[in-house]
Structures are given as C-alpha cells and as structure tokens.
Amino acid sequence: MKTTTSLSPSLRERLRAQLADLKMPGALEALDDILRAVDGGTLLAPAAIEQLLGAQITLRNNRRLVAAMRSSRLPAVKTLADFDFAFQPSIRRDQVESLHTLGFIERRENVILLGPPGVGKSHLAISLAIAAAQSGRRVYYGTLADLITSLEEASQAGRLSHRLKTLVFPSLLVVDEIGYLPISRTGAMLFFQLMSRRYEHASTVLTSNKGFEEWGEVFGDEVMASALIDRLVHHCHIVNIRGNSYRMKNHAEVSAALRSQLHPQRTTADQPSSRTRRRGRQEAPTT
Ligand code: ADP
Ligand code: MG
Prior knowledge:
This protein is of the alpha/beta class. The chain contains 13 helices and five strands. It has three domains: 9-71, no CATH class; 80-240, P-loop containing nucleotide triphosphate hydrolases (Rossmann fold), CATH 3.40.50.300; 257-283, no CATH class. Strands 2-3-4-1-5 form a five-stranded parallel sheet. β3 (172-178), α9 and β4 form a beta-alpha-beta unit. The relative contact order is 0.11.
C-alpha cells in the first residue's frame, strides 16, 4: 500500500482513532485515498472534508436502505436515477424531482400517481419511499389489497386499533395499485378509517390506474369514495402519467430483436397489419 509523504504518521493515526471513536467507518475507509489526493495536490482541504463526510453519509444511507428494505415491505429497489424521463414525456420532470427533495413529507402532503399500467407509477412511488428511508424517515409499502387484508385480519382478531396505529405511524405510507382488485365494503371502510387517521398527520403516496371518477366503483360506495378523495386531495400533488407502458417497450424491443433473428431479410420499415395498427391506436392515451 502506498503511503503519503507530507502528513505525519502520528496525525494520520490520530485521525483514524478519532473516526473510529466517533463510529464513522465509512469515513475511516475513505480516509487514506482522500489524504493521498490532498498530499498529491489534487484535492483542497474543504473538498477533502466534504468527501470524508460524504463517504460516511453514503454508508449511513445505504444502511438505512437495507434496514428499510427489511421493515417497510418495499418490493424492489427503484430510484429516481433509474427512471427514464425521455420515455415518459407527459411527466413533469421538475415536479417529480422536486417531490424527491421530500418537502411534501415535512408538510404532510400526499402524492397521487395516476395513469395506465406500466407507465412507472409504482417505480416513482417506491423511489419516493426509498429517498424518504435514506433520509432516516420511517416508511411502509403495501398494495391496497394487502393493506386491507391486514386491516381485516386485525379487525377479526380484535387488534384493529393496534394495526391502525402501526400504519398511521410511518412518515410515508405507499398505497399501491388502487383499482386493480375489487374491495369489500368492510375493507373500504377500514381503509377509509386509515386514511382519515393519516389525514394532515403524515404523508401517503397512492397509485391508481383508475381516474377519480371511477373510485366510487373501486370502493363500492360513491359517497365514501368522494369523502376519501376530498381528504386525499386537500394537500396533494397529482402526477398524471399519460403514456405507453415501459413493460411493452421492453417487450417491443425483444420481439423486434427476435423478429430480426427469424427474418433477417426484413427491415425495420416493416409495418404492422392494419388490424394491429387499429388496436394500437385504441390502447394509446386518450388525452
Ligand atoms: P405501473 O406501476 O405504472 O404499472 P411500474 O412502475 O411497475 O408501472 O413499471 C413497470 C416496470 O417498468 C418496472 O420495472 C419499472 O421499474 C419500469 N419502468 C416504468 N417506467 C420506467 C421509466 N420511465 N424508466 C425506467 N423504468 C421504468
Ligand atoms: Mg404498479
């Protein structure tokens, strides 16, 4: 291992001891490289301090993420950095980026992501939850169906108030997939109770493939749905995604690759049949 020349070994050892004493293993691990860059004249002291602290913050955030992945039931790691905005031009990038600075959680506001399947609603809901977890906040993820099942089970076991407390506590709750599965009337009422408790108390990120006008049908009760929507949208950011499915993008690329392997003589100028074209138009966004 290379050693640096200008920093006295005793000072280096004192720095190491201080970082160990402060329990800063990320900074400790980065120390030698940073000191080498300082000695080599490629790094100034303020930047060195910033890098040293940055290394510790990165380690801490990764640890928080690992812990959150265990406790929050997040189904995958999806981040803003992995999101391809070019594929989804209907999304206002500045809105989504600003949401990831998490001011909405401080203000106890909600986020509702609406749009057809595959457009990235769950991806962005999860990336918000991950950003929140990395900032040290408690997060919890569930599909609407999962959350309702857990509330129903708790209710039957006489533990509803305990379960409600657990779900009201996180600074950020993700309710994914509103509208995919039918909900019982009891289930809808339990969910309404949960959202009423979280209202103005903590933020919720919700995703749905159904517009608000269809939520009456989803929850089996127009009056309850409109009371729910009323609370949710009171302090709320709505991200309306109108675009094509990212899943279909991959599917289209794979099938194009397979087609060109099977029929190398055909070119990309091949047109789909008029029947497929018609169906494609029907699937295209209407607004
Ligand atoms: P939705 O919840 O709207 O049905 P998802 O968020 O589950 O869609 O997206 C489907 C898959 O496509 C996921 O693996 C997601 O990470 C990916 N995906 C969707 N949109 C994008 C995008 N714009 N950039 C990168 N990956 C995307
Ligand atoms: Mg989804």
